[in-house]
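Dear colleagues,

As part of the handover before I leave the project, I'm documenting each prediction I ran so the next person doesn't have to rerun anything. This entry is a single chain, and its sequence is reproduced below.
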Amino acid sequence: MYYIGIDIGSTASKFVVINNEKNEILYKEVISSGWNSKETGRLIINKLESLGYSRKESHITATGYGRIAVDFADKVITEITAHGKGAHFLGSKDKTVIDIGGQDTKVIVQNEDRVVDFLMNDKCSAGTGKFLEVMANRLGLDLDEFFQMAKNGKDIELSSTCTVFAESEVVSLMGKGTKREDIASGVINSIVSKVSKLAQKKSNPEGYFLTGGFSNNTYIMKSLEEKLASKLYSHPDGRFAGAIGAAIL
């Protein structure tokens, strides 16, 4: 029996296959979510079956933004539950889990492998992955170029808390001739500041554990650790935490 976890996010979809007997990851992949979650789910199961992971020999659990669209799943669970379980599998133990997603940021408090509390930001808040993508596109950069420019920029403060208004603010700065490096630095600082303020409401002497798409981004990790004034941990498979948690559960 294979245990498959599918995490359909607003930007990227992750899926893993776990061998429950040895509790090991047999396969993992991330793809773009595209515009249709149901279609994305079908692409995922077709890919897995082509690799020999038969639907009939598998138990599938779905989570994420588009989890309801995975109509062939045996079980559907919330992102909070999935990320908590997945983070624990990856070594978070009793640390507070931070997941910077495409549409929202989640802060999850655990007691061993159980979620006991959580916080989420407002969807309009400029502290998500989608906000970063919007700002990078506005500056005519891909994400790698955006982060490289941010490293060479001087931080400027963005006052807006809504993505729409923040984008207008960035356009205004561009019109004034502000360097792209400085705007990029300001955008990332805005995200990190909002995430850290949310996370500090659930401060933890054991530190924090980052999951999601930015969990392997050294620039975000360093900036967030400085803002939190606390140790921040992660794992190479951090972005798969939701899918891993779904498969385990």
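DSSP finds eight helices and ten strands in the chain. The chain has a mean pLDDT of 89.

All the best with the project,
I.
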